[in-house]
Amino acid sequence: MLFKQQALLRQKLFVLGSLAIGSVLYLVARVGTLDRLQPICPIESRLPPPEPEQIPLRTLQFKRGLLHELRKGNATKEQIRLHNLVQQLPRAIIIGVRKGGTRALLEMLNLHPAVVKASQEIHFFDNDQNYARGIDWYREKMPFSFPHQITIEKSPAYFITEEVPERIFKMNSSIKLLIIVREPTTRAVSDYTQVLEGKERKNKTYHKFEKLAIDSNTCEVNTKYKAVRTSIYTKHLERWLKYFPVEQFHIVDGDRLIADPLPELQLVERFLNLPSRISQYNLYFNATRGFYCLRFNIVFNKCLAGSKGRIHPDVDPLVVTKLQRFFHPFNQKFYQITGRTFNWP
Q1: Catalytic residue among 4, 77, 99, 322
Q2: Residue 170 to residue 202: CA distance in whole angstroms
Q3: 121, burial (CB in 10 Å: exposed 0-12, middle 13-18, buried 19+)
Q4: Binding site for 3'-phosphoadenylyl sulfate: which residues?
Q5: Which label site among 139, 156, 206, 299 has the fewest CB atoms less than 10 Å from its CB?
Q6: Would you place residue 8 in the very low, low, confident or very high pLDDT band (cuts 50, 70, 90)?
Q7: What gap in Å lies between CA 280 and CA 231, rounded to an integer?
Q8: Judging by beta carbons within 10 Å of its beta carbon (0-12, 13-18, 19+), is residue 331 exposed, middle or buried?
Q9: Quick one: 86-338 is in which CATH superfamily?
Q10: Between the CA of residue 203 and those of 164, 200, 311, 313, what are the distances in Å?
């Protein structure tokens, strides 16, 4: 009897020992496998690489509310200090072209959480009186922003004013410069239309576009007419290239910005080294206005002023053709300098 009990006990111990040894061997094998796998496919390697110099966009959620209060003058000095807000000189300027779409471009770029815009045209560099007030005066005209945001202002007169390139160069020789252009003849007519509307509002008369654009003595294009002169883009750009390399300029297609804005805005994001944040969600077509409007979030939308998209007066087709032929060689040179080609006649 005792012999049978001892035999049964030895059998149980053998089974338990076998199970324990098996478990140890399994764990050793499992750990060995993990050790072999880890260098081949570490967890970190399966994660997407972080974006370089990523802007802390979560912090920028304060932007819409707090910066709006600052613009209204409602924010306190304590809020400014607490959030480390500053008034920065612009790191990018929309320098032109008048009636090319500068306001639309500025408002659309302001959709980006890393961009803060100067609401008004400052006219610092093209106005001698303003320029004499100094750079601190200019800085005080800029909106409050977080240090990692970039401030952008726009003054279309900069592009055609002779003194401006040198003055901006003295402020910041590495600044990024945005130029938005439209088909030159269309832009000239748009320029005329804005002036005409202003005259009519004051009950003043104004010459027809044809009379201003064509010299009645020579029957040639009147280059003394400002609307025509502004559309000779290459003449103005050559003056800027005396101070800035062509790599610091980005040309925006104003006609495309009206018809299909997102691709143009994505090009600007890359030029400004910004992470891509503007999406189709932010842009929706307003059939009543005939233009794209802006969607900042689920509750805040914005359309451009009603003065945008004025109806142009009818212009003699012979005059339009004459202007298009006049601008053609200047356009070709503009394409060559900038590296961007447009389907202009």
Answers
A1: 99
A2: 40
A3: middle
A4: 99-103, 182, 190, 292, 308-312
A5: 299
A6: low
A7: 31
A8: buried
A9: P-loop containing nucleotide triphosphate hydrolases (3.40.50.300)
A10: 34, 5, 19, 18
What's the residue count for the chain? 345
Q: What global pTM score does this model have?
A: 0.78
Q: Which amino acid is at 55?
A: I
Structure confidence at residue 84 (pLDDT)? 80
Within 10 Å of residue 185's Cβ, how many Cβ atoms? 23
Annotation marks residue 77 as catalytic: no
Single-letter amino acid code for the residue at 270: R
pLDDT per residue as tens digits for the range 160-192: 999 999 999 999 999 999 999 999 999 999 999
Please choose, from the candidates 291, 345, 292, the residue with its C-alpha nearest in 3D space to the C-alpha of residue 323. Answer: 345
